[in-house]
Amino acid sequence: MDQTTDIKIVSRDVHVYYGENEAIKGVSLEIEDNTVTAFIGPSGCGKSTFLRCLNRMNDTIDVCRVTGDIELDGHDIYAREIDPVQLRARVGMVFQKPNPFPKSIYDNVAYGPRIHGLADSKADLDAIVEHSLRRAAIWDEVKDRLDAPGTGLSGGQQQRLCIARAIATAPEVLLMDEPCSALDPIATAQVEELIHELRENYAVVIVTHSMQQAARVSQKTAFFHLGLVLEYDETGKIFTNPDHEKTQQYITGRFG
Ligand SMILES: Nc1ncnc2c1ncn2[C@@H]1O[C@H](COP(=O)(O)OP(=O)(O)OP(=O)(O)O)[C@@H](O)[C@H]1O
Ligand SMILES: [Mg+2]
After folding, report:
1. Mean pLDDT of all residues in the chain?
2. CA 224 to ligand 1: nearest atom
3. Which GO molecular function, any one, fits this protein according to its record (predicted)?
């Protein structure tokens, strides 16, 4: 074995309801550490909904109710004693549309470490900011203008800034919901390269509508369909020889 395959997240029989509407209808899945896991499937099948369960982002949606178990390193993330804000520092998220705060580049990255008290001094914080920006492959482009607003960067740069912001709190898991859909091919290639590298340190879960992207960046793929995971396997298997007819139809572009 060249790669550890420890299980990072376990979900058991997870159901998600928006009011009366059941968006996730019993999903059980094990997400591996140091692995990129892709969620694919047609629009509206629940990929974002399930992803948001993994760091309790659904808590912020009033009508949303989650049942079942989700464990991070064997601990129930929905347990009473779990603080969702602390949880989200461990399970970071990057969204479809780059959403830097209306603050400087520096303050965007320093925000999480500040609220979580991760730096003891200004020098410490500087080091975290630099390390995170380097890790997100954007340091060279911004190091001379750390005081400039994050919103003034290009779309691809903003997305890498958001990745830097997400990793600044030293998370263990990184959730990405269509992180490249607003990016041009060059910025997409940069973010994909980055995802590839991030796998060394994190469990990465990425929602994507691009079959090519799923095939390029992930090792495991889950095919979502109507609120269920119909198939979950090695990415190579899903894209060459899926078990399920619906998976085959989807990856060959016959629906979705
Ligand atoms: N905030 C919300 N309030 C009510 N219903 C919602 C909400 N978010 C999602 N839904 C519903 O839950 C179902 C799953 O939506 P979700 O956004 O998870 O799908 P998705 O697979 O991410 O789709 P897409 O590929 O278009 O992003 C849909 O029926 C959607 O209308
Ligand atoms: Mg979605």
Report:
1. 94
2. 21
3. ATP binding
Position 4 confidence tier, pLDDT thresholds 50, 70, 90: low
- Between the CA of 47 and the centroid of ligand 2 the distance, in Å, is 6
What structural domains does the chain harbor? 7-251 (3.40.50.300)
The whole-number average pLDDT for the span 208-217 is: 95
Ligand 1 centroid to Cα of residue 76, in Å, is 24
In this structure, the strands spanning 91-94 and 7-18 are: unpaired
For residue 256, what pLDDT is reported? 66
SS3 content of the chain, % helix, strand, coil (to 5): 40, 25, 35
| Cβ(47) – ligand 1 distance below 6 Å | yes
d(CA 176, CA 205): 6
Mutate to test the pocket of ligand 1, among 18, 52, 208 (most ligand atoms within 8 A of CB): 18
Number of the ligand closest to the Cα of 63? 1
For the stretch 26-77, pLDDT in tens is 999 999 999 999 999 999 999 999 999 999 999 999 999 999 999 999 999 9
> What is this structure's pTM?
0.94
